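Forum: Protein Structure Q&A
Topic: Joint prediction for protein chains with partners

I've read a bunch of threads here and the consensus seems to be that you should model interacting components together rather than docking separate models afterwards. I'd like to see that in practice. Below is the full input, 572 residues plus whatever partners are listed. Could one of the regulars post the assembled result?
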Amino acid sequence: MTDLTLTMKYRPNQRVDMSPITCDKLAGLELADIAAIELQNGKRKLRVDELFSISGSDAWNIHIDNSFAKLDYIGHGLEGGKIRVTGDVGAYLAMEMRSGEVTVSGDAGIYAACQMKNGLLHVIGNVGDFLAGALSGNKKGLQGGTVIISGNAGDRVGDHMRRGMIMIEGNAGDYCGARMTAGTIAVMGETGRNIGYGMRRGTLLLWQQPKVPATFGDCGTHTFSFLPMLFDAMSKFDSKFSDSSKHFNRVHRYGGDIAEMGRGEILVQVENA
Amino acid sequence: MIINGVLIDHTFAEAFPMKATRVIITAQTERWAYNAAKSMTGFATSVIGCGCEADIERYLKPSETPDGRPGVSAMLFTMGAKSLVKQLETRAGQSVLTSPTSALFSGIDGGIRIPLGKNLRYFGDGFQTSKLINDNRYWRIPVMDGEFLVEETTGQVNAIGGGNLLILAESEIDALEACEKAVLEMRKVPNVILPFPGGVVRSGSKVGSKYPALTASTNDAFCPTLKGITKSELSPEIESVMEIVIDGLTEADIKKAMRVGIETFCSIGAYNGVKRISAGNYGGKLGPYHFHLQEIMND
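Posted by a regular:
Agreed with the consensus. Here's the joint model:
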């Protein structure tokens, strides 16, 4: 069976809610049924076959081709299967995903991996603000799974993050790890202002020295035996994090946010360790 | 059956169902991993008086351990699940948590998961943090030398305890040297431990005693100094008997270890004082596992 491929015919002016297009929802449907599914587009609804030409039949492997930045909610609540996107995507990518894989070859908008529960999200390009965060007013951001960003991430990465791992090969914006409850955020590039703001628990693992807020205490330089295990777990994914030359187990530790519960940590690679 | 002049009795070792777990202890150096493991498995020769039977299983290369440091795998056996949990936590807390640079991991999958660091973490007084790595939870407990890393749970599996071999020799030194060689070989067999000091026990026991308070007492039938005054199992030339007790995860593991032991004794031969190999049992009434010596050698 070949992947179920949806190739975008044209780019509508309004945003498109792609949440009906997930592997588990399409599995077992005939192509005609899939074609007849209606997608919210601004104030109106569009049939899938109005927006996309459809080919292939394997609904557990969906390929969205010629995508652009107004396709929102791709992989929303996904439970198993793989969605591969060629092009950019809009907001709420892989929101509340429970299992499976979503891969995007381009950039993603705000709230990617929002409240995601498990599975793997890999964005080759950049992502907007609130990566793996919680919706405004909600208390749980990322709750499990792995998020890999090959480019840069916007502000408030992992806001209210509760569990899981975020790996960012590029830079992260301001308030990275803000209000984090647990989990791991690894950033190879630079980080912005107010890193770990309101952080309760969890780990920010950094390759570059950040501007550490005053509410984090300097705990000195240490060797941690859990780090090789963490890098080993990261190495199974196709990313720069699998490059053993970038691994280390000696770090400078900052504990905080002391203005909050203060059990979180910023671990910064110690050069020439 | 006679091999190289050594008589192998037509008898069997009687063994019992037990609960077991395996843990991996790592440290900065192999020596410190050994120190922790040796302490954890200390005073654990017999469930009769120690609460559990435990021993180091083998040394592990850095490539074989979860954190890439030198390590040791150790196994604990008890008669019941509750006592296994208690013994494991007590020993891990007093012997591994306390040992410099150590870390402690599960060494066995499957079965029921039992606490390893799940309760030890409270030693961290609120400063402990956890990390979920590859779906396994680890606790990082701050300690004076840095951080004690411990996996939250380990596996508890059904196992077998009480496999044994008796070696009957012309002299004490002949018996001891033969046992040392056999223990060396038997310890190469995976999934088994030999819980007694150096793997050897000289005070084999029988069930019961003339004293009502005691559940076990000396196995007088195999005591050479009582040959003339009790119903002895020993012929006149036997001056010393020693025993090797084997606990293992499966029947196959114990059989393999027993076979290796018998082969080693037989390779030493009657010419060097090893006259006979026997095994301890209780008439087949107590333990469901019967390891027949001659069958093991014929397999």
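The mean pLDDT of chain A is 96.
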